[in-house]
Amino acid sequence: MKPLLITSALLFAASVRRPVFVAALACSLAYLASRGVALGRLPLIGPQDTLAFFSGSVGLMALPFIYDRRLSGVRWFCWGCGGLAALFAVLALPFPTLNMPLPPVLDTYWFELHVALAFFAYALFGIAALLGGLFLRGAGRPVLDLQYRAALVGYSFFSLSMVCGGIWGYYAWGTYWLWTAKELWTSILWMFYSLYLHLRLKGPAWERGFAWLGIAGFAITLFTYLGVSMLMRSSHSF
């Protein structure tokens, strides 16, 4: 199965055209599907599976945008999304695969929904950051509208993920909320994007600031996903 992940990483890294990007996404989804069939569940446990899932999520969430006629600089966008997906696929490779069944505390659809929706949101926040970069390079106002759309859909997914996580937490630990670093940074990320999306109402004077904050938001996203898991104690491993 790892050759599929390696192939997807290489193709993503070479994605300057849409057909190559779609081929990379197909390999990434095939890897995730093969892992899911082998495990009998979504591959969402451990660093290798979560990084690979994040990589595939970036490709999947980017697909509607690369075929949007309002997007100028499609090659730059494909290269940016492909590079991001390739990075996380490569980061997944050194880690061992965890083929164990889900522990009872995780064996619920609420957990799988919580994690999958969170990664879809993370991917869309990354796409919003890339679109913000394109706008700052002079891609035009329609790209900023696409950035807003990516962030808004990502925010919706993230809000649903928090709801599912609270329900899962109640079944697992008898409480909807634990005062750990992951939960706190999840709240910070949610509040950041709540404020960020409202900045769109400020009008054209805030356009460049809106684009820059979209890039900053993805930095907070990466810290919430990876930084907290590696540097702080939490109820989440990744």
Automatic annotation (TrEMBL):
Matches recorded under Pfam families: Cytochrom_C_asm (PF01578)
GO cellular component: plasma membrane
All copies of domain Cytochrome c assembly protein, residue ranges: 83-232
GO MF assignments: heme binding
GO biological process, one term: cytochrome complex assembly
Keyword list, A-Z: Cytochrome c-type biogenesis, Membrane, Transmembrane, Transmembrane helix
Cell location: Membrane
Membrane topology: Multi-pass membrane protein
Transmembrane intervals: 50-67, 74-95, 115-136, 148-170, 176-197, 209-232
Superkingdom to which the source organism belongs: Bacteria
Protein name in the entry: Cytochrome C biogenesis protein ResC
Organism: Geomonas terrae
Lineage: Bacteria, Pseudomonadati, Thermodesulfobacteriota, Desulfuromonadia, Geobacterales
